[in-house]
Amino acid sequence: MTDATKYRALVDFIGNTPLIRLNHVSEATGCEILGKAEFMNPGGSVKDRAALGMVRDAERRGALKPGGTIVEGTAGNTGIGLAVVGNSLGYPTVIVMPDNQSRDKVDTLKSYGAEVRLVPAVPFKDPNHFVHQSKRLAEELDAQLPQGACWAGQFDNLANREFHEQTTGPEIWEQTGGAVDAFICSVGTGGTLAGTARALKARNPKVTIGLADPQGSALYNYYRHGELKAEGSSISEGIGNSRVTANLEGTPIEAPFQIPDSESIPLVYELIRREGLSVGGSTGVNVAGAVRLARELGRGHVIVTLLCDTALRYRARLFNRAFLESKGLALPDWLDLG
Ligand code: PMP
Question: What's the pTM?
Fold first, then answer.
């Protein structure tokens, strides 16, 4: 006899990720710096949470019908999350991505059977930006396909941050026994930072909320100086923004930091070598932000950040001598780069 209530299917394993002490940065700062292992989600990144939150919300609203197609514009990880969730719940996925993202994310999407459409990377104000193209495509497919299509719209769809408010934030609160002093991470859509901040502030208004922003993003200047202004560039993917999204709006960011690649990328290699943690560029930005915040708050604080995805999602960049040299980044001398 089978017992469908006793065992859980894949989507039930999204979230409830481990909270890992980052030994070396904790010892260097005298704080407890903890990383939530989001790369352990079934689709390998933090974006599984937003994907599930948006799919469940679309089902409830009736926007996504049985067998309907999910369409999204994404730097890749949300697409992978949607493909994982979609495959497990019976929804095909069509993913629109800018063509400057790592090949590994495109290959991963295709390996799940998602239809991938690469479009030129252009500014958000351009009607051909991947977000606008994905929205138009969703409308077209909805009119054509018998089961319809639904646009996820992660940047301004509040189901994204709500899922973090209901899961990521409460998990951090429980895993630290309420001892968390600060939470900091980078922002792509802002769903993670905004939702987690809301949950933690509701439990203890004294929890400090920080932003770790890469160069090339306008958010640091906005929260530090009140002006949306970008400078420089970064090899990190999936983070940074030129605008305050609906998800990010109203987030009480008290400690904004701008993190150059020269600070975050060496940390990526240090996390691999000294902690055994394979992480991508956005995690380097997150941990660099946690270190800066630890130095600002002083010793003895509990600071939580996110380990968003793994280095293997950026194989052709993080482990590529020519790419690193072209960006003027220091080569990790202990790694065999071929
Ligand atoms: N890190 C990575 C690797 C991502 O793909 C993303 C999302 N694009 C983020 C961080 C940022 O998460 P959020 O969209 O919730 O701000």
Answer: 0.97
The per-residue pLDDT for range 144-200, each reduced to its tens digit, is 999 999 999 999 999 999 999 999 999 999 999 999 999 999 999 999 999 999 999
CA-nearest residue, atom 8 of ligand 1: 238
CA distance 37 to 44: 10
237 CA closest ligand 1 atom index: 3
Q: How far apart are CA 139 and CA 123, in angstroms?
A: 22
Q: Could you give the strand order of the β-sheet that contains 302-307, starting from the edge strand earlier in sequence?
A: 19-21, 32-37, 302-307, 182-185, 208-214, 255-259
For ligand 1, is residue 48 a contact (CB within 6 Å)? Answer: no
- Radius of gyration of the chain, Cα coordinates, nearest whole angstrom: 19
> Does residue 188 line the site of ligand 1, with CB under 6 A?
yes
Catalytic residue, chosen from 6, 47, 105, 125, is 47
Give the Cα separation of 183 and 212 in Å (integer).
Answer: 10
The response to whether residue 77 sits with its C-beta less than 6 Å from ligand 1 reads yes
Q: Is 327 a catalytic residue?
A: no
Contact 34, 22 (CB under 8 A): yes
